[in-house]
User: Fold these one by one.
Assistant:
Number 1:
Amino acid sequence: MAAPALVPIILAGGVGTRLWPVSRGTLPKHLARLVGDESLLQQTARRVIALAPSDRVVTVGAKGQDFLVARQLGLVDPDLTRHRLLEPVGRNTAAAIALAALYVQTHLDSDAVLWVCPSDHLIGNSAALAQAVAVALPVAAAGELVTFGISPTRAETAYGYVHAREPLPQAPQVLKARRFVEKPPQATAEAMLAAGDHFWNSGMFAFRVDRILAEFERHAPEIRGAVDAAFAALSEAPGGGRQIPLELWRAVPALPIDKAIMERADRIALVPCDPDWSDLGSWQALWEQQQQDANGNVARGDVVLDDAHDCLVLAERRLVACAGVRDLAVIETDDVVLVSDRARSEAIRGLVATLEARGRSEASAHSAEQRPWGSFKVLHEGPGFKVKEIVVAPGGRLSLQSHRHRAEHWVVVAGTARITVDDDVLVLGPNQSVHIPLGAKHRMENPGEAPMHLIEVQCGAYLGEDDIVRYDDVYGRS
């Protein structure tokens, strides 16, 4: 009998608040370059296509981030962009997995084994993970719901655990999972570590399509019914992928797969593995994963340290100097400097919540905001004016639009711009400019082969990003 096909499911949602200010809503943790030359999403994609064809990988991600997801996956392998499911809002992992299972059952292979992979984790030993998947595949094909357990190295309170002891009779390398434990207090974590029969919950799973869908029907019928309705309404998105109507997806209960299914189901198996795994959920975790100097420091960028010990210091644009300090995380980005106790990751959540309550855009957006056509950054603003640097990628084309409350002046500083202002079409090069009157229909495009850089000066009574009336947009935005 032929082995069942493996279909990887990449979960590309979430924000990673504890890694603020690098990870924010507009550029979350899995899309940022935290370790190595590629994002965590791209590293995940390379791991899964080593074990399954790239045109059989399904990615579930946020609709608002899809242009970044598609761009990054396409750089790894263009076929990775074929099966993208776009969530209009996040509904946690149970909904994402149920949606992906329905999609695979209908469009790819109803007999497949799904391998669920978070895209925001770091794996240092891909060979060890591949070996664990090889062990899990026949067990999942036989009907077990398989989770991958990481052998714990410390009494960690920020991770969930799985209790597993007895080997499966048909697979001695695999253990029968007895219970899932949420993030425990310190004393409980220490007791579980000493017992030796608890594993960190990696968030990776393997199960047959029909098996997991049956478990949703049995243990989470409200999720299954709502996801069924949303799946029936999937439609092609303007930039590719399948999108879900907002009102239907909002109706899906938001629960993690552990609570919705794994804690309730029978026949749960655990494959122990040690692939040098980290969820990179905090600055502490990132510090632990990096090469430290003789004083225990990790520094990246323009950093000068004097009598500093056990610190993580990341500098993006400016010199960061630290003296006479220890156990700090100092993170400098274009618009924010964070100074925090390196080990107090939960304090970051509270800080971000405070910024959100104060209406600070830095809580969720970087100064350089990514768009399907390129990016923009606010350079300066004051009463009645705002100055932006806009970068349009080769072939990029902004929407045909107008503004109710502002006029604009554009100066091209690099590359070539094709500019539409009402009925006029201009081609401008460096040091050439154009005025966009209040209410005029306008558009900028880059017909060249290099990025086009343009300085935009806005003047008006209201300068918010929502002051846009769109008439035509190749990316399907309203």
Number 2:
Amino acid sequence: MAGVNFSKGLEGVIAAESAICRIDGVEGRLYYRGYSIEDLAARSTFEEVTYLLLYDALPKADGLAAFSRRMRRSRDIPPPIRDMIRSFPPRAHPMELLQSVIAYLGGYIEHVIEHSPMCNCRDTLHQVSQLASVVATYWRFRQGLDYVPPREDLSHGANFLHMLHGEEPDPEDGAIMDACLTLHAEHGFNASTFTARVVASTLSTCYCSISSAIGSLYGSLHGGANERVMAMLEEIGDSSRAESYIDGALAHAEKVMGMGHRVYKATDPRAIIIERSLERLVERKGERRIYDILKECERVMAERMRAAGKPVYPNVDFYSGAVYHLLGIPRSLFTPIFAMARVSGWLAHILEQRADNRLYRPRSLYSGPEPRPYVPIEKR
């Protein structure tokens, strides 16, 4: 097969058409269904963005009100699932719990997919609404605390903080959390989204597709970068040591977490938005140390990469971990939060895949041995 071209990791390969997300990596722009992430993060709730992703358009007031009611009434976790969360192996990762919970929730639903590309996924919003409830409840049970019932008068982000901490969040904290979910709701054919579409192409259920996407996100090369940013900040400790840390990392060809992106060749637009949220949190809560380290790391990286002719810019993970930290969220929940936001995008892609479905079946370039005779075991 010498001379045959292939793209390792499907780099640059166009696998399908999609009307959901547009990423302009050169200019650093991101759009959901044609709407800029800047407008959506500033002016829409996560619930409205979920509606947009699932129904292709922004809703009118009465449509959003009805959709929000459905989402909010789906937040409460049934007692059997609470029992499952409480008894899940203590040493298991919460992402493994999310995979299991999605499969459990799927058992409550009568799936309508046989012999039809469409299904009833838009009507069964448990997979979107309850992931946030599961993440919060997981943490409370691990701390020996009681289940906090959801509130229908709070936004999706604010209700998550309420269920996590057991008290109503500051209104701005709730708004920032909700905007963070919007920023992470969708991002094209990333690994987890592509995984969801591959499973959906078999006409499996949306719950199976989402469970597989969670498994993909669990991998260290996809989710969890903001956790590693926070670990980096802890290692640096103080902004005065940021320069020596960055120089040491670059000298050993080590990756500086939160810097650079596979698609964006300019600053990730989500990083710009989330940094503003971090600035507001720092100003209100008076915790500058982490922010000062981040800004010094950004300054040093910009200088070093510019000098090397390889400009590198912050991505959304560079600041998001610090935002979650100031919202009182433990680091072990950072990747599950990614999942509870991205589930809206996954579901949108599952529906789009089914609307014009073709089973994914790529080929591989064989590199094994040529045909050879079988040797009986006694003669080997």
Number 3:
Amino acid sequence: MAESLKEKTISGMLWSGIGKFGVMGLQFVSNMVLARLLMPSDYGVVGMLHVFIAISSIFVTAGFGSALIQKKNPTHIDYTSVFYWNLVASIVFYGILFFCGPVIARFYKMPELCAVLRVQSLSLIVQAFSTVQSNQLQKQLKFKVLSIRNIVATLVGTIVAIVMAFLGYGVWSLVISTLVSSIVSVFLLWKLSSWRPTWEFSWLSLKELFSFGGLMALSSFVETVYGNILSLILGKYYSPSTLGYYTQARKLERIPSEALSHVVGQVSFPVFSSLQDDKERLLWGLRKNIKSLMFINVSLMLLMVVVGRPLILLLYGMKWEVSILYFQILCFGGMVYSLNSLNVNVIKSLGKGKVYFFTQLIKRLIALLMIFGSIFIGKYGIMDGVLALVIVYTLSFYINIVINAFVNKRLIGYGLMSQIKDVVVYFIIGGIVAVMIWGLKLLLGEWNQYVVMIIQIIVYVVFYVGICAILKIEGFLTYYEIIQNKLHRNNKKVNK
């Protein structure tokens, strides 16, 4: 049983990784091309509206997806009831956004936003057709199906975006490509999944799921408002171009931080949920995941801080130079993103809906106070306003660590000092190597900056991995064992 779960977890992470990094890779290429064809203001327009669609999506799903995964044995009626709720709610909230379009456009003082919102929010209805199947496959750890579907849908959306941008459609290339990608995603999911809704619905089933899912939805609402507060402030009080610079920096930083966290989190939540009655194994799994994830995450973020300038100029061009400093600062927050995500997944997997909600609420209220404080810093000329916002937003990630660790100390005995002991080695080794390659840049100052960047990346990887291998750091050994086992299995297949 344990070995079976272990094998499913590893396979799930591998396929989830293939899917997530495949999607991120396509988005990365798309963004690299589109950044040269579109203006920062185009990205800013989409960023302004994202918060309204994201909040609507929370009310549409109502946390039922998390509840289905957390519940040990959901029934067919559970799934069908959630499906019909999602569908009806998506139509209702699309109607709300449709009629609120002029109000939102006046809020930002940009009339063109009304039409963009009305088209962009159609994705709510489209995605309602895929939520249940996605959660069902995730619960069953069938990430191969999900990965294939996500990669193909993203590829189609990428092609549409680039073609439309070349034809001069501007911001519409971003809007239509997202909608097309969602439609393809739903079509493929219905082809690849055997589950179909029947004409069955139960308010009692929804009520049961809502006891946990409702708190997840409230938490997601707080999280979404917080996650988009900078976009809201920048869109309202600064120019769309300023928001575009921040959005582009955030997108690039998210590739390693949120992608890695998503891969492990997507698998760890259902796995942790299955271990909710075995705290010892749950703690072991959490520590294993944290060490393996931080081994990669910290090193990548530190590397991106050092090579941030040539990286952005190479990928997006000189017109995105303003994004460089925002990107480097955000990377410091990205270093601990996965640590926070895994801690939060434990709280969710234990079914502690109230604890999860109030933990998220406290964290976000503290962060919002800090953000509003930074507005005054910018207002009185102590520091550039946008820069102050980005710095404070980054600092909030470290405050989250303290709060999350305090909660998990009480739930499973895994407190702040224990977590620091488990991850500090990656910061020390990564920091030493980062300083070394920063010095290398100074020595090669006359060389082409892109050649220097490539040399820095190679030297960083060789020294970081080499030091971790010599010291037999657990995060490195985890991946080494996975690769060794995979090679051993392949050799056995060949010999047969």
